[in-house]
Amino acid sequence: MFETLERSWKLIKGSFKLIAANPSLFVFPILSFLCFLVFLFLVIALALPTLFIGTEEQIAANFQTVVIFGFFLLLFVSPFFGTFFAVALSYETGEVLKGHKPSIMRGIKHSLKNFKEIVLWALTLFFINIIQMILRRLVEKYGGGLGRVVGNTIIDILMAGWGFVTAFVVPIMAFEDTNPFDSMKKSFQLLKHTWGETLVGYVGAGSVLGLLLIPLFLLLFVPIIGIFFLPILILGAILISLLTQVFNTVFMTALYLYATDKDSKNAEKYFDKELIE
């Protein structure tokens, strides 16, 4: 247990060191967010004309159709862009550990080579989210007071388990060009050997980063001047969200390379020599 914690801590330190030395890695989650925003604006721009055609009833029906269609479309697009740029980030992390400088275009080109697998994985996440929403709706409708709490807690545990079991999917897609089913199977196999490191690093470090928002949130309750801290809180939340996304991908990539003995000549620059050996 203590050896697992020690290895996890070394992996966490090495991941942050790698991120600090290669700040251009932050470009990938930023691009993901910007692509999502552009797509959202395009959907709104294309949908707007339909909301001013016909009678009031037709306009109301059109509005309802656009909202439902747009919601399901964005439910797919969000994980697609997230996965696309996460695969690029994971691949470039591997390149850094081989001794190369990170390249935004090289990472994007690599993701384009895996376009079909990324689409299939985004569809998988889309259906998982749909199932989750249906289950929550059923719990809210038929669960009653205690049933709602128990039902939602069970769903939360199942979703956390799903996220844990599929933690290695992104680096596997980045380095092995596998389909989602094979990626999930390989992820589960790797998890059996590295579950301690995955749990400590992926969950623990992410939680610590989230805790950094608490002081900023408390500042909002300072009389008179508290409202002026709202922009700082929003900016802080965005920055911590970006750091968490980059850290999670870099950490899981490093752990994947560590678990599969992949080529990483330059790893000693960031990670403990004993850990690599």
Distance between the termini: 19 Å
Main beta sheet strand tally, sense and closure: none
Alpha-beta classification: mainly alpha
**How much helicity do the residues have?**
over 70%
Number of E strands: 0
Work out the strand percent: under 5%
| Gyration radius over CA | 21 Å
Shape type? globular
User: Average pLDDT value?
Assistant: 79
Low-confidence stretches: none
Separate helix tally = 11
Order of helices and strands: HHHHHHHHHHH
Task: Describe this protein's structure.
- The protein is mainly α.
- The protein contains eleven helices and no strands.
- Helix 1 crosses helix 10, helix 3 crosses helix 4 and helix 3 packs across helix 7.
- The mean pLDDT is 79.
Helix and strand topology:
Elements: H1 2-21, H2 27-47, H3 56-97, H4 104-113, H5 115-142, H6 144-165, H7 169-176, H8 180-211, H9 213-219, H10 230-260, H11 273-276
Name its key features.
277 residues; mainly alpha; 11 helices; 0% strand; globular
Structure in a nutshell:
This protein has 277 residues and is an all-alpha fold. It has helices spanning 2-21, 27-47, 56-97, 104-113, 115-142, 144-165, 169-176, 180-211, 213-219, 230-260, 273-276.
